[in-house]
Structures are given as structure tokens and as C-alpha cells.
Amino acid sequence: MVDIHIMSEKIEVVVKNCVQNGEGPYFDDTTQSLYYVDLFAGDVHKYNTVTRNHSRQNLDCSVASVIIPRQKGGFLVSQRTDLAILDSWDNGKVTSIAKVEADANMLNDGKVDASGKLWIGSCFCGKDIPDPSKWPKGQGSLYSLEANGSVKKHISNLNISNGMDWTDDNSVMYFIDSIPRQVWAFDFDIKAGNISNQRTVADFSSTEIPDMGFPDGMTIDTEGKLWVACFDAGKVVRLDPETGKVIRTVKFPCEKITSCCFGGKDFTDLYVTSSQFLMTPAQLEKTPLAGSIFKVTGLGVRGRKANIFSG
User: Fold this and answer.
1) What gap in Å lies between CA 306 and CA 299, rounded to an integer?
2) Do 68 and 308 meet the contact criterion of CB atoms below 8 Å apart?
């Protein structure tokens, strides 16, 4: 295990160089395991934070973006354009339950709200284009999936739909579209399953890419502050959604930081995914820990238990 000490927090590499494009971290407190995906490999990973055992499953697809436990057992996963059920970690059987997107696109970041509904976004499948700003724009949407398998589209004409989370009282949903480099807020009606009143809470577009990068995955802490992964800027920032200001920065030893979630026995550990996808040998030599999973401790804040899919 590699330890990196920066200021008051401690950063550890818990799984080294395990993915090409790590995304979608989900911490299961019942097993103290971190699940995450290798996006363009179609793989899902499991890291037991107690035993430090690491295992992997292939979903027999070209893109996998989410793995979330289900109330009925097994996992809800994505297979490029489809949502599917992985029966169990051991048997690896995958069954599609809904084709959601057009063939040129892919499902991307997703998360379950407090009612057990999945929210998941999409974008163009830019598997062979390393610069996300060059992916065709306006092809993404934001969907929700009910326990009965019904799918509803909420927003169209997105560029790269990405991180999302909700306030503790479920009155606000936060959401990222990576290419305008913005974090948005919506009024959230958990009973009706609707969003409204879109506004921008943070805008990275006035900064250079090496400074703030592209906002990617996101999580929220119990104080209502957002933790946003900055792709191509090598950091996670803590944002105050009331002011849009960065109030804390955690730097990592690679540029392509993709997402984050809180975990551990008291949800004070921040797990962070990264990417080495389509990097040149020179880039990899400069940042040899790209494609690793990091754990940050000593932040002095905590997250909350992740929701499971109600289906």
C-alpha cells in the first residue's frame, strides 16, 4: 500500500492500477465493500475494505457505468445502453431489464434516491476519443428507473451527464453536466419523482482546464457540502452549493480523477476513483498511479449510507 501525506488528510492507494477508467464508486456498509466499474472495459469491481480482497466481474458488454445493490438481492448494473440485473457477485448472470439509450450513446453516472429510485444519465459513447470536450454534444439525457422497471426521461440535450446527489431533506437534487463544466441544482419532489427549477450552483468554465478540469462524479457530506471530482485537474474539491465557492481541495498524484463516495464504518473515509484511459506512455510515466483507487482519511467530515435500488 502506498501512503501519500498532504496537509491534515492522508491519501492511500488501496487498489493500485486496477482499472483503465474507474467510475461509479458505491460503498456497501453491510459488507464494508467498495464497488466500482471500469467504464470502457465493461467490468465491475469489488474491494473488501476489511480483508483487502479485490475481485472483478465482466458484464459481457463494452461499457459498464453503475453497480448498485438491490433490495431483492443482487445488483442493478448498466450495459452500455441497457439497465440490467446481476443476480449475484458469485454467479455473474446478467439479465437486461430495459433498453434506455440509442446505440450511439451510453449510460453514464447513476445513483439511487431515498425512495429507492435509480437516476441515471447518458451521453455519446466517446470510447475512442480521449478529450471529452470533443464528444458530440447534446446527445445525453437524464432518466429515472422505478422498481417495476418503468423508465422516465426528465431532461434531454445534455452533453455528458455525470455526478448527482440529494440534500438530507430530499428537497434539492444536485447534478453535473461535464461539458459546460457546471454543477446544477433542481427542486426535488421525492413523492412525485420530479425535478424542476434548474439553476447553476457552480461554474468551472471561467477557469482553465488544468486548474479545475471537468466536474465529473460527486457526493455530498452531512453538512450539505458537495465533493466534486475534477477530471483532468487531479483533485477533488469541496463546494458550498449556497455560494458556489471551493472551500477545500484534495490533490491526487494523477490528473484524471473521476468520482468519489464516502465509506468506512462511520462514513468518514472518502474513496476516489481515477482513470488512465487512452493516456500516452509519457503521461503514464509522469503519473504512474493513474487508474488506482484512493482512500482519503482525516477530512473531519462524514458522508451517509448509500441507498439501494428498491427493485
Assistant:
1) 19
2) yes
Please tell me the number of Cα atoms within 13 Å of 242 on its side-chain side. Answer: 5
Burial of 225 (0-12, 13-18, 19+ CB in 10 A): middle
User: Residue 260: which of 219, 293, 214, 302 has the closest Cα?
Assistant: 219
Indicate which residues carry an active-site annotation: 216
Which region holds residue 161: left if phi is over 0, alpha if psi is between -120 and 50, else beta?
Answer: beta
pLDDT digits (tens, 9 = 90+) for 179-237: 999 999 999 999 999 999 999 999 999 999 999 999 999 999 999 999 999 999 999 99
The pair phi, psi for residue 283, each rounded to 5°, is -65, -40
Put simply, whether the predicted model's pTM sits higher than 0.85 gets the answer yes
Using alpha carbons, select from 248, 270, 277 the residue that is nearest to residue 43: 277
Query: Which of the 8 DSSP states describes residue 70?
Result: B
CA angle 248, 3, 298 (to 5 degrees): 40
Residue 166 corresponds to which cell in the numbers above?
440529494
Q: Cα–Cα distance between 137 and 119 in angstroms, integer?
A: 21
List, in order, residues 6 or more apart from 143 with CB less than 8 Å away: 100, 119, 120, 121, 122, 151, 152, 153, 154
Q: Report the Cα 156 to chain-centroid distance in Å.
A: 20
